[in-house]
């Protein structure tokens, strides 16, 4: 889907579906898994695996909101409470960057390494 959207000139800034695709790619690069729940055509909740599990295990804290708003809207609101301004997202696309050797081997085991392009966004200050 990402490749198709890019070929049609879509980006996170001008396409809502592209924004959702990119979010899942961010989640996939976090090494902790991710989860998505859909209900009907439009109701959706998504988060990194750790945040999703934490939210479900703390259901008693947002149960009342769930009864008022519905499960998925309350879950999304709870996710927003858990987000911090500091994050470090990354995702990797297989393929060529054009300016790097086409073939490399692992210095440790000697096997051919996969070539890819990685994007990162880290707001953490070290």
Strand content: 15-25%
Radius of gyration based on Cα positions: 19 Å
Tertiary shape = globular
Number of DSSP helices? 5
Cα-to-Cα separation, first versus last residue: 35 Å
Low-confidence stretches: none
Total beta strands: 4
The description of the largest β-sheet is: 2 strands, antiparallel
Order of helices and strands: HHEEHHHEE
User: What is the averaged pLDDT score?
Assistant: 82
Helical fraction:
40-55%
Strand order of the largest sheet: 1-2
Give the count of structural domains.
2
Category by helix and strand content: alpha+beta
Structural summary, described in words:
The chain is α+β, with helices and mostly antiparallel strands and 126 residues long. The protein has two domains: 2-82, no CATH class; 88-122, no CATH class. The protein is built from five helices and four strands, in the order ααββαααββ. The strands form two sheets. It has a two-stranded antiparallel sheet. A two-stranded antiparallel ribbon has the order 3-4. Helix 3 (49-57) packs across helix 5 (71-82) and helix 4 (59-69) crosses helix 5 (71-82). The model has no long low-confidence stretch (mean pLDDT 82). Residues 1-123 form the Sieve element occlusion C-terminal domain. This is Sieve element occlusion C-terminal domain-containing protein. InterPro entries: SEO_C, SEOA.
């Amino acid at each position: 889907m990402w490749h198709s959207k890019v070929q049609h000139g879509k980006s996170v800034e001008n396409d809502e579906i592209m924004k959702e695709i990119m979010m899942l790619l961010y989640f996939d690069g976090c090494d902790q898994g991710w989860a998505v729940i859909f209900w009907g055509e439009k109701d959706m909740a998504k988060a990194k695996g750790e945040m999703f599990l934490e939210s479900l295990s703390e259901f008693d804290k947002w149960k009342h909101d769930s009864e008022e708003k519905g499960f998925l809207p309350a879950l999304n609101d709870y996710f927003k409470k858990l987000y911090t301004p500091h994050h470090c997202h990354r995702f990797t696309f297989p393929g060529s960057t054009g300016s790097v050797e086409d073939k490399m081997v692992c210095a440790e085991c000697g096997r051919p390494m996969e070539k890819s392009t990685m994007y990162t966004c880290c707001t953490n200050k070290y």
